[in-house]
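INTERNAL AUDIT FORM
Audit reference: QA-55
Scope: verify that the stored structure record matches its stored sequence.
Auditor: D.O.
Record contents follow.
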Amino acid sequence: MLQIRQAIIVEGKYDKIKLASLVKAVIIQTNGFGIYKNQELLELIRYYAKTTGILILTDSDRAGFQIRNYIRGAVPEGEIKNIYIPDIFGKEKRKAKPSAEGKLGVEGINADILREAFRKAGVLTEEKPLLEPITKTDLYLAGFSGMPDSARKRRAFQKELNLPANLSATALLEVLNCMMTREEFLNRTAVQKEES
């Protein structure tokens, strides 16, 4: 599995599923044009642009380029790289007919072609050993989920890390695994427990 430092921005859930089978990275879906109305999601993308950098991987049709250009305009600072898939005509297996332009989207592109697109973009895609991840159990033990006061504690921790306040426990878990090691998380939350 390829380990990618940057957060990858894709259009939909099937694109995300496809990429998750190839790379270990934070993958954020825009829900197509839904990104236009989702300020919290945009703030998360801006956060990643400034910290780890973002990779925009949308379909090669007009809608994909519209979304790509919108994100570039809405993210004023940070590292943004584009990854482009080639124009390959056909239809995705799950669809009854091809898209309006007849091109395959990210979900329909062959895994080798996707890997090559990452290489062409100059993104480091070396295979690396995966670090032990922060788990849902770790969040629970830190008091960030499953307890009466969890939401408040989680929001305070997110504020301390300059993250959006309304992240769910699952979204926070994904962000934390990109930001820090499990050991760093456990040390940081142990210090917080001692102080409270």
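Auditor finding: record pair retrieved intact. The chain is about 45% helix and 10% strand.
Action required: none
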